[in-house]
């Protein structure tokens, strides 16, 4: 398994950027991540609904963008994929936890996610809330045990702090509070809406993508300067990710997205298309892509290819 | 402030166990903890409802049993109170987070806690759920920054792992799942109920008290053997705490408790009085107290006094 992955990476990185078989790389990474996630939440004793509920959302076939970002950031600073695998899984657990919470009746009240009923529709609200906690706790545990992969305790603690920051009042929860407050905003307020919108997305989406990249770079042994460059790259990626998400919400069907389309419009949410229109939103995403790629200048030209390609992938994604 | 506390401790520990002015000690510790908690969640920019909601529950005047247990465990292995203060605050944040969740409509659906409306009654369910997350994230952050107090990164990581264990499927969330499942259990099932009941309380109550003591001992520089003895002591304390809680629920009024009395009976919950009667429950609590104190044998006879007294305090508490 290890050998196959290593061969793939070597084959891929020997090609020039434009020829880079990014989808093979994504699939290879996603396969490794899915296997590690499956092993991280075994259905062991005592039998708990929570474990089933954790697996239900965690193994429901996401694109694994965050773990890939974590692994690729580890590799771009000279680290090994295997060293960052626990950290990559941890980041995906935090993401899964936030998805479960976002879908709750008292939040976005959503019934469809990745083409399946949402977690609380299957397990009930009480179990879902506990499942979100359990995923956060397991993420901390997985990340904290990275010392067994040869990472120094100092670096692991630094990574734990980055993760805590991404979850708390400097990250996800602040974004979700602003998102809840932003629903039903009238059109008169749209002029001042862009600032509010960026606050939401910097906290709700960009913070965890940033943590994914930064944690990967910390675990991989990156210098402070390398870590900060990857932080800025990931922050651009985070905003871009959300601009594209907003555009897809108004231009695609539920079937194409695997989740309820047009829900932002129904909820009266602030979105980029609403504030600046669909065309300007697309241009803004392109601008962020150029900025993101700019922050990668100076890294090894071969090793940086996956991160460059990931930016293109996100700006061009169709679901 | 430091000097006063030190004088108090010296004055107190110079007396024999039976004369120990435990309440002064408790108040002194609670005062230090309240000050540290107040500073840990400032109402800074950006203005968030979540920060207000965190402070609402965190600073609502609990007895601070868990932080005290953490600080006293640090001191009994030779550490300083100040070294364990961040850890003690972290443990109380986890506790506050679990209280907020337990009171939610989809959990115990409670409207009164410590004589005040519960968190979701004041801030709404969405904000309350985010607040619980924010408290967990801040707890991890506070604990992880204990290195700035001179604790080695290895020990801090070990403490972080203990905390993650207490929150996740080996602790609080497993206990809460079993608690939810235990409601409405018929009387026929009561014979097999004791095992289920102990599972709930070992996970829901004892796990965090255990973490409080163990984290204190880790941060204080305790040996593996000292850490394990404090773990066993705290586990007995945890069960005892819950036996007493169950007895109080059926023997005291809401006014005396500062929370809704008799609610376990109404919810059809498994409790010790229901399984073994009030008198046997009291005897069981006394037995656990003797066991808890037994695990403290071998520690410095002066330094151990607060932990001995805490066991007596918990078994005799009236609210």
Question: Would you summarize the structure shown here?
Answer:
Helix content of chain A is 70%, strand content 1%. With 319 residues, chain A is mainly alpha-helical.
Structure overview:
- 2 copies of one chain form a homodimer.
- Chain A is an all-alpha fold.
- Chain A has a single domain (2-316), classed as Farnesyl Diphosphate Synthase (Orthogonal Bundle).
- Helix content of chain A is 70%, strand content 1%.
- Chain A has 15 helices and 2 strands.
- Chain A has helices spanning 2-13, 22-40, 49-58, 65-76, 81-102, 119-123, 125-144, 153-167, 172-182, 193-219, 224-251, 254-257, 263-266, 272-294, 305-316, and strands at 112-113, 116-117.
- In chain A, strands 1-2 form a two-stranded antiparallel ribbon.
- In chain A, a hairpin with a 2-residue loop joins strand 1 (112-113) and strand 2.
- The longest helix of chain A has 28 residues, at 224-251.
- At the A-B interface, helix 3, helix 7, helix 8 and helix 9 of A face helix 3, helix 7, helix 8 and helix 9 of B.
CATH topology of chain A: Farnesyl Diphosphate Synthase
Q: Radius of gyration of chain A over alpha carbons?
A: 19 Å
Strand order of the largest sheet of chain A: 1-2
From the structure provided, what is the oligomeric state, counting identical versus distinct chains?
homodimer
- Mean pLDDT of chain A, nearest integer? 88
Content of β-strand of chain A? under 5%
Protein name (chains A, B): Geranylgeranyl pyrophosphate synthase
Keywords (chains A, B): Carotenoid biosynthesis, Isoprene biosynthesis, Magnesium, Metal-binding, Transferase
GO molecular function (chains A, B): geranylgeranyl diphosphate synthase activity; metal ion binding
Pfam families (chains A, B): polyprenyl_synt
């Amino acid at each position: 398994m290890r050998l196959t992955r290593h061969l793939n990476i070597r084959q891929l990185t020997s090609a020039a950027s434009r020829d880079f078989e990014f989808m093979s790389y994504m699939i290879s990474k996603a396969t490794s991540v899915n296997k590690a996630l499956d092993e991280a939440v075994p259905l062991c004793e005592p039998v708990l609904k929570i474990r089933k509920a954790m697996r239900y959302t965690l193994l429901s076939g996401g694109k694994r963008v965050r773990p890939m970002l974590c692994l690729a950031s580890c590799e771009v600073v000279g680290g090994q994929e295997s060293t960052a695998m626990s950290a990559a899984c941890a980041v995906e657990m935090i993401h899964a936890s936030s998805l479960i919470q976002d879908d709750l009746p008292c939040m976005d009240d959503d019934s469809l996610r990745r083409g399946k009923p949402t977690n609380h529709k299957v397990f009930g609200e009480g179990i879902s809330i506990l499942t979100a906690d359990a995923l956060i706790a397991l993420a901390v545990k997985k990340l904290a045990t990275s010392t067994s992969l040869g990472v120094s305790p100092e670096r692991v603690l630094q990574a734990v702090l980055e993760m805590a920051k991404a979850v708390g009042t400097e990250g996800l929860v602040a974004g979700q509070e602003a998102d809840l407050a932003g629903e039903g905003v009238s059109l008169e307020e749209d002029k001042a809406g862009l600032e509010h919108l960026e606050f939401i997305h910097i906290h709700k989406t960009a913070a965890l993508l940033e943590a994914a990249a930064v944690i990967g770079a910390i675990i991989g042994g990156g210098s402070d300067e390398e870590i900060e460059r990857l932080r800025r790259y990931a922050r651009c990626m985070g905003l871009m990710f959300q601009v594209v998400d907003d555009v897809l919400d108004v231009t695609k069907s539920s079937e194409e997205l695997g989740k309820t389309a047009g829900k932002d419009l129904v909820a009266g949410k602030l979105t980029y298309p609403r504030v600046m229109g669909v065309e300007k939103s697309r241009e803004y995403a392109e601008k962020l892509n150029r900025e993101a790629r700019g922050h990668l200048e100076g890294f090894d030209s071969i090793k940086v290819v996956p991160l460059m390609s990931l930016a293109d992938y996100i700006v061009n994604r169709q679901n």
